[in-house]
């Protein structure tokens, strides 16, 4: 992290024409239980970047070395890493596209994460998930719908593996940030992606896909959105 932070201090990162400085990226690890031995293999996501909480309209006003940004996101990262964990190939298309919930992708995504974060069968929906789904959907109904689309992942539901998936995700991103920094390319990390200057986005995407395959042995598609 020190190498990444040191490199970013040499780059011109602006928001609304004002150079931004003073931020420091850190990785946050966790333990499942306070009595567990100290370890650094759960969670590990990066925090500390001012850009992480920016609304989309303000992200469009970010500049990296004078250039507009490109947003690079791993598509359906959590379920794809879950497939890698069970050694199965995910189906084609949007992994969050559940029949009957096509217009409620955000709710499916949140529910999927909740099922992978819980140590028990999800019979009741967290309030944030419930609010994002149509009236009448229950935890059990959502679990059955997701399980029907992703039968290979059913053994992982209620097994509290989200922290393990976050760790894998964060390792991929940290490796990408280090490699890019050594190539002279500035990248601002998000939880499941990063932002780069337009001119370096193709190189960053190629590297992200390469590292994703190395870590998961699956294709982890990267979607690029240029502002």
Describe the structure.
The protein has 227 residues and is of the alpha+beta class. 39% of the residues lie in helices and 17% in strands. The chain has 2 domains: 1-29 and 36-41 and 53-68, no CATH class; 71-172 and 210-227, no CATH class. Strands 1, 2, 5, 6, 7, 8 and 9 form a 7-stranded antiparallel beta sheet that branches. Strands 3-4 form a two-stranded antiparallel sheet. Helix 4 (105-117) crosses helix 6 (139-149). The radius of gyration is 18 Å and the shape is globular. The two termini are 27 Å apart. The mean pLDDT is 96.
Task: Produce a short descriptive summary.
39% of the residues lie in helices and 17% in strands. Strand 5 and strand 6 form a beta hairpin.
């Amino acid at each position: 992290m020190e190498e990444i932070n040191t490199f970013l201090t040499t780059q011109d990162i602006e928001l609304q024409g004002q150079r931004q400085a003073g931020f420091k990226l850190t990785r946050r690890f966790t333990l499942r239980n306070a009595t567990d031995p100290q370890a650094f293999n759960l969670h590990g996501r990066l925090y500390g970047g001012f850009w992480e909480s920016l609304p989309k309209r303000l992200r469009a006003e970010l500049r990296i070395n004078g250039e507009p940004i490109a947003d690079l996101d791993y598509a359906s990262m959590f379920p794809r890493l879950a497939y890698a964990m069970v050694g199965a190939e995910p189906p084609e298309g949007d992994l969050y596209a559940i029949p009957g919930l096509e217009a409620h992708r955000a709710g499916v995504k949140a529910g999927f994460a909740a099922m992978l974060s819980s140590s028990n069968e999800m019979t009741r929906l967290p309030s944030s998930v419930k609010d994002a789904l149509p009236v009448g959907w229950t935890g059990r109904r959502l679990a059955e719908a997701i399980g029907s689309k992703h039968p290979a992942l059913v053994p992982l539901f209620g097994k509290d593996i989200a922290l393990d998936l976050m760790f894998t995700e964060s390792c991929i991103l940290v490796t990408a940030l280090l490699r890019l920094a050594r190539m002279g390319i500035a990248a601002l990390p998000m939880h499941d992606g990063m932002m780069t200057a337009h001119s370096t986005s193709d190189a960053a995407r190629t590297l992200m896909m390469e590292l994703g395959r190395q870590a998961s042995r699956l294709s982890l598609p990267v979607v690029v959105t240029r502002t």
